[in-house]
Description:
The complex is a heterodimer of chains A (219) and B (174). Chain A has 219 residues and is an alpha+beta fold.
Amino acid sequence: MAIDEDIIIESVQQLGLEGGENGLILEFGVALTYGFADYYAELEYEAERLFQEETEDELVRQAARELFIEAGHVCGFNTLGGIMESEAWEAVVMPMIEKQEDWIRGIIAVINALGWGRYEIVELIPGEKLVVQVINSYECRHYLEHYGTDAESAKCYLSLGVLSSIMNLIYEGKIVEKPELTETFYHQLFKENKKFVARSISCRAKGDHVCRIEVSKID
Amino acid sequence: MSASISFDKERNILKIGNQPVVLHCHHYNMFLQQSISDLIGDEKARTLQISAAHRVISRLYESIRVNYSDPEQILTLGSETFKKLGYGIIDFSKVSASGGKILLPMSHYAFNWFEKFGPAKKGVCLFAMGFALATMNKAFGTSFDSTDIRETQCRAMNPEEYEYCIIEVGKNGN
Ligand SMILES: [Zn+2]
């Protein structure tokens, strides 16, 4: 049985994620919120704009962007990692998995239930490379509305961070063995032994018609 | 009473009212909030986050059908929406058109900030402040702005001692 995205999305919805008695959504080993897309995006791009007013140095500016991409690593590691170790994953996705790369197809299907926009796999070479196009990413939608289409660099920070985290979790972190998702493990995977990096191939914020991201192995 | 969350299957977008929402975990929320401070400094970061939250929540209220002549209804809508979206428990029972104290016995940001980073130096419930401000303005037709709001007590600073986060609204927080 191949990965069935419709079933996976429906299953996420059937979890009925909503704040409980204490107003928290505790699921997959994390506390979730329905965050406002334009809130997150405004924070990213306004903070970046204000930061850039302070420096002309392109290297320093890039460091700011890296911070937002790292937020994507943090998100991918904890949320997507937590999901891939959850009972819901075991019950719904595992029966559909035939080979290791199905983990990638499965978690991309889950992403498509989170409200982040539509992620589509364009190319997947197991253990080597992943190319995804992101349609309607909330980051770039906000960017287009507020800043136009002549960004100096790609603006899909979350997608960049999250997609590389998926490859790192599955091929380097051996998520299939359910490692504990600790700070130490995070550092090992994303600071010390990072094997996969993401780069933007095209981005709507730069005037391209779709955001496309390639994750590949560091040589 | 709270607005419902809908899913647009064609575009993979979640919405409450007219506002797109996205599921994120506390690790991301805390990391992003800390990063904004690291980049532009505490003061600018606080203003940005409170005003950005105020903007999205104001737009949310514009899009939800509710009896806007009854402040009670809007305050209830506010606290139930806050809870439904996973931000915690927010209690508007001690406020009036001239302002007052808003209590948060549970705050997603305060609880998880302390869990992740340890004691905070200042209040961390910036999203809740913007949310509260927008709710008060909608309920009472007031125009409090971000200079009228302060978090005078935050559980992220000392959860053993503080039973609530306290947000005060009124001219200069009085
Ligand atoms: Zn607080």
